[in-house]
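ERR on first pass: missing label on line 2. Operator R.T. fixed the label and resubmitted. Corrected input:
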Amino acid sequence: MLNVITLAEAEAVARSLGERTKLNTTEVPLSGACGRILAEPLRNKENVPAFRRSTIDGYALFAPDSYGASESSPVPLLITGEVLMGQAAEMKGKKGACVRIPTGGMLPEGYNAVIPVEYTEEDGFGNCLLSKSVSPLENVTNVGDDVKEGETILPAGTLLAPLHIGVLAAAGFAEVPVIKKLKVGVISTGNEIVGVEQNPLPGQVRDVNTHLLSALCEQMHCEVTSYGVIADEKTVFTDTLLRAANENDAVLLSGGSSAGTMDLTAETIDAAGDLFVHGVAVKPGKPTLIGRVGNSAVFGLPGHPAAAYFITLSVVKAFIEAVYGIDMPEKTVTARLTEHVSSNHGREEFLCVSLKNSDATPVYGKSGVISQLTRSDGYLLISRNSEGLAAGTAVTVRLFGEGII
Amino acid sequence: MLNVITLAEAEAVARSLGERTKLNTTEVPLSGACGRILAEPLRNKENVPAFRRSTIDGYALFAPDSYGASESSPVPLLITGEVLMGQAAEMKGKKGACVRIPTGGMLPEGYNAVIPVEYTEEDGFGNCLLSKSVSPLENVTNVGDDVKEGETILPAGTLLAPLHIGVLAAAGFAEVPVIKKLKVGVISTGNEIVGVEQNPLPGQVRDVNTHLLSALCEQMHCEVTSYGVIADEKTVFTDTLLRAANENDAVLLSGGSSAGTMDLTAETIDAAGDLFVHGVAVKPGKPTLIGRVGNSAVFGLPGHPAAAYFITLSVVKAFIEAVYGIDMPEKTVTARLTEHVSSNHGREEFLCVSLKNSDATPVYGKSGVISQLTRSDGYLLISRNSEGLAAGTAVTVRLFGEGII
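pass 2 clean. output:
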């Protein structure tokens, strides 16, 4: 078990846990594949086009038959038929002969070029007179020119977006092999926590974290199960954690604000499995725990919603990205600080800011959760080595409410 | 009916149709509210905090009772009780007396300040000796300091992200009034179009657009119904369009590649309703139609999947943004062209590009749909007034596969 570590070290521990988390593959219909992650490279099942196709209106022929043709000495070829658009060319190509063909038409077997209609003339006796020679494959799209059979069209690990859905439709994938969603169990703890529909009595607060963390994890492509709010009581705590760890690939426990809850969480993880991280040098977010119970990763998150949000978007996101093998960057903008921000000497700090044009003004959380978050547009992370940031410093602001891509 | 217009003009027509499309309100549980759009401003139902709260451990008192207290002449106040954490303060505050109070504890009615424990001493006879004076509201969070009752916490039209879900939980909204999803019907037309699960015969192609456009519209917060692939036949065409227009707020018809299909679509819209736009000066995407049938907006899109994609992300997106009153920016990066791109004299052009570091290389679509799209990372829009773009020009590339926010 490590002592207090940096945020980057905590993310590295989370990533290494994620790399060891294996998810099974499942098949979903194409209509449900958007937003899922491809489990294996998809190879094209056929050549596209599957046949030689003319790129112009003209006559399909065997190229060497045209050699030597010119306006002064046209070469005659017997017209033996016509290829129709959207139909297979059933005839076989014969030397010394040709067939009429439209743009997009299929070349008969044995033919390898098309002469444009403007370099020909029909003589009224069933012959086509060529006034120019053509080379093999001239005016022809060859088999597999778009995609060859067996060629990889999308690599494993692709996060499927609408455009990929179009590509899969074109390539004939009605069912798509995707990685099963990461199953995440969410547990809120604390004697003072009441349901959203309740009116908190003095000293009580509503359960924000179950809802906040569930929405965040669903946005990060996870399947979330809520285990509700449980009391700060060792037996209940242990039973719920073991059940959630058994039923999920990861468990997020978000504790009350008390130090006692963090200790209880740490002891429970340590007793039921392994505790790897006990405290992170970041403000807010110090009471962060990382461990494992059975095959499930376990994250103990701070009780304060803003802190739980920041740690989920750093440590838990690093874990999920490693499991899926994808990046989920937050949307950022560059802005200038409107006022001085003091430093924290040795621990990083998440700072809420409001944005106006390109000005970022710190929003401090003295007066409570709701107003701090609704008055902010995003947040920034101040380096642990920072000596404070002067007014006018350019900072990268990660945007709230813009989702994760 | 307008003749060929610019892309910006087409987007303006779409926006004005969108502004006239009214969607009803529905209530959803908080767990299903992420990604939905708030139908009305949400006002806080209560003051937070709902009671005066101590920010420190100390003694709650009536501030004027402390005036004149100093280390050399401490003021004694009778200790009449203790406020417990998480419980209502049932006692009433009396002048000349005080009660013990913990951090976060509720101030008894009649008291208006808290003196820190370190400026006090208990005398063993039931009195607390104050060695300093405190002002009214000193060390107290007042009623409504976080949010006042009736204050707007989220405005109408907010696209709800995880953080908003947290704010709604804190404010006690278990049910959330949201705008009903825009209902979009998708129709693919063309005799040559076959299902994804089929092997296309020569001249046939698989139905890409139903899947591509459905995924795209779902990502843009719409509820999509597919009407399948219908033949280029007037009666079938009219019947399906009327049915889809009756059942949806918008209909996307994506035609085959032929000019005949575009004309049939235009005639059908004109006969059943109003046709506002017939052709847009953009490449690819010229055969774009905008009209209205009954209360439904109707968009005729090009048959080529890349063109249908580009027009959906410009014209149809402008419509959806206007309906919902939100912006859905595509994710962009700035890159430099690696080669010269020729101009189009008077019409805008969408150009696929592949990205490597910050270099953008044009990907032309000669060899077909699949390889063009899988070899590209995004696209750019070249202005109709451009005289061509030189190698090295900085361009804004809209990214494929990164979704819409």
